[in-house]
Write a structure and sequence with these properties.
Length: 243
């Protein structure tokens, strides 16, 4: 099948095959290694040392002092998954807005176990107005005041991304091309959710949402005891299809 596709000289199309281990006698491996228009790349599972290096690099770039104990905590919470590690680092990055340090106790509160739904998934589904999935994620997690701050800041970041998408869409007139050209890149697995967000929101409503998010964040900081109630009311209202 690969040989047939190669002969058709397809342009602007990339086909990726993911396989288990291919030994040296593998016909598929030999084909991809010998043909100039095909490439074979080996991938290896991440270990804790690799994940630790990624985490250290993150804090080094942010110029945030961090102890090895905190690095180990973050890596352990990732359970050997780079995706889970990136989710935890993104939550920490959101929390560090206007902050130049973070304590071990704060990291302990911020990071979730890998089986928990991530805050990014909660926000993306809410913005896509997937109310049922949004409520399910809320019910499956035990959020704290620190989580409330991270969640609302994640809302702000992703809503600003949505705003930039609308602005780009005005010139490109094509949502698929807009997503492909967007910087920083949008992962393919998030494409359908992003397209749904663009479909259910408008440019004007996105501006209004950003203003509302800023007010909710201020309200959360002023009323820490009721922060989760304030946040959940905002999330459920935002997820309504008639918004």
């Amino acid at each position: 099948m690969i040989e047939n596709l190669k002969e058709k000289k397809l342009e602007d199309i990339k086909i990726v095959l993911i396989s288990n281990i291919l030994d040296k006698k593998s016909k598929l491996r030999n084909l991809f290694e010998k043909e100039k228009k095909l490439v074979s790349i080996a991938f290896y599972s991440d270990d804790n040392q690799t994940l630790s290096t990624i985490a250290k690099s993150f804090f080094l770039k942010k110029k945030i002092p961090i102890s090895q104990e905190s690095i180990n905590l973050i890596v352990n919470r990732a359970c050997g998954e780079r995706k889970s590690l990136n989710n935890e680092l993104e939550k920490i990055e959101n929390f560090l807005t206007n902050k130049k340090s973070i304590s071990h106790e704060e990291i302990l509160d911020l990071t979730n176990l890998s089986e928990n739904y991530s805050i990014n998934e909660l926000v993306d589904n809410c913005l896509a107005k997937n109310k049922q999935k949004t409520m399910y994620i809320l019910n499956e997690n035990n959020f704290s005041f620190e989580d409330a701050i991270i969640i609302i800041r994640t809302f702000l970041i992703k809503t600003k991304r949505l705003l930039k998408l609308f602005q780009s869409l005005q010139s490109l007139k094509n949502i698929d091309q807009t997503i492909i050209n967007f910087k920083p890149p949008i992962f393919w697995k998030d494409k359908d959710l992003i397209k749904k967000q663009v479909k259910v929101w408008t440019l004007d409503k996105t501006y209004q949402l950003i203003d509302q998010i800023n007010k909710v964040e201020l309200n959360i900081k002023k009323n820490s005891i009721n922060s989760l109630n304030i946040l959940f009311d905002f999330i459920l209202d935002t997820a309504k299809t008639n918004n």
